[in-house]
Amino acid sequence: MIAFKLVIALSVVLLVVRGTPTLAQTAEERPAHRVEGAVGGLWLGGAGLGSSTAALRANSPGTPAPFTLFTTESRFGSAPGLDARVGYGLTKRIAIEAGLVFSRPKVRTRVSNDVENAPALTVAESVNQYFVDGTVVVLLDRFALGDRTVPFVSGGAGYLRQLHEGLTLVETGSVYHAGGGVKHWLVLRDRGFMRGVGVRVDGRLYVLVKGIELRDRPRPHGAISGLLFVTF
Amino acid sequence: MTHTVRQHAVVTLVLLLALPEPARAYLKFSVQTLRAGTVTLQWDASRPVRYFVTNRGVPGVSASDFQAAVARAFDTWEAVPTASIRFQFAGFTNAEPFEDDDLSVLGFQNKPELERVLGATGFVVDVLTGEIVEADIFFNSAFDWSTASAGQPGRFDVQSTALHEIGHFLGLGHSALGETEMRGGGRRVLASGAVMFPISFGPGNTADRELQPDDIAGVSDLYPEAGFRNATGAARGQVTRGGRPLFGAHVVAFNPATRALIGGFSANTNGEFQIAGLTPGPHVIRVEPLDDADVDSFFSGEDAVDVDFQVTYFERLFIAPRGGVGGRFVVEVRPK
Fold first, then answer.
1. Are B121 and B106 spatial neighbours (Cβ–Cβ below 8 Å)?
2. CB B257 to CB A171 under 8 A?
3. I need a labelling partner for B131 at 20 to 30 A (CA). Which of A30, A84, A184, B272 fits?
């Protein structure tokens, strides 16, 4: 709800800014040492968590193969989410950001191969998932598409927090990401409190370490987000 | 102890059968006391539990070999890091198991009439408090035994049988984590997921020298080490059939991350169960009828155990909390 309010607020800001005289600037003339806020939606891809076998010890001397009671295959589902970021331009091309990503993916476990022929089924839970990260963004002016559209690359690391269904158990870990995207300025001004407004599309590859896992193994999740940003 | 009323508690606990036969998952015994109502049967864990061993061997197993194998089995239970029980070997004795003599004695006895019983455990219980004051274990010398480190074909392993019986000695019932098949008028174990499964592996097999997650959860629940309850969670729920409570279902929690299987039972007339000692995280819950061992291995003959249903899974993942009990849930089983 808070995020939606932010979107509405930014939309109002955008209308106000567009309604006032502005001075178009080249990428080289973008303001540095400014604070930028961005908020938008995100689609976080799923990832496999792996399979497990519920096994008993078979009745044979030596080390017999385990006796399978049933098997499971688990997966983090893809899910929409919210992406909010606050950045600061160190130079005209390099910025640092703090980001918060929230999503509610489902963990689905397919149960099959029951020894007593119970039908296969999929059981699930919903997870409240948060990424809090620090990110470096580098604008690639060399590849700019006109004065207002500039691609960028980004990378960062942060904290992973996952709250299981029922809100009774928290799992934590680390999140790393790398990616890139494009920023497009709708408005640029060289004076005033608000220096620019634009939209931004990010593609990121997140790698989650720890948190909800079946194996002690990092899990990659693709993500794409679209954000509205305002530079102050 | 002089002021307490003492009597033999129902003893039974038939155990490890060479071939067929039965026995309970991680169940805790309870006893009706005069002072405290129904309480869990257990030792006073504030001091080491002393035990004696009979000074008599059998062919292939000397008294000292027997004592050493039994000591290894006691050590295995004592080594469970999440449990706090301790034992002390008090010496060899001429006393026999099952004498009401204030001595906990383990030893061989020849009982050929118990043709499928490898061993059994009996208790003397303080009926005011429910505390165990004496427990005895007999090993049936009608069978051939071995203490060889790798086992011995054709002979049952003393240490494995001792580990199971000491589980009873501690107050644990049988585990239903196992699969069996009918053969020759009895049951043969296909596979087992707990040392406390009622039916033994075959002769020469030493697999039951190692405790399984179900056994560890059971002893830890009975004698919890500091921190155990805060570090693990419990599942609580109800099993129903046609909306009515179902008594005697075997409920198993499987953690896909640790691969641990821990069982429990819907053990009251409301069909309710509770399984403690679960590693925090998601679990698959499987409910099955008690059809892999005789029902009276788990419940008394008067209990109307319902086995007329199919294996059923709970339709959600159950999340075991870190400390405490997860949200109560209901599993409606599928009729046959």
1. no
2. no
3. B272
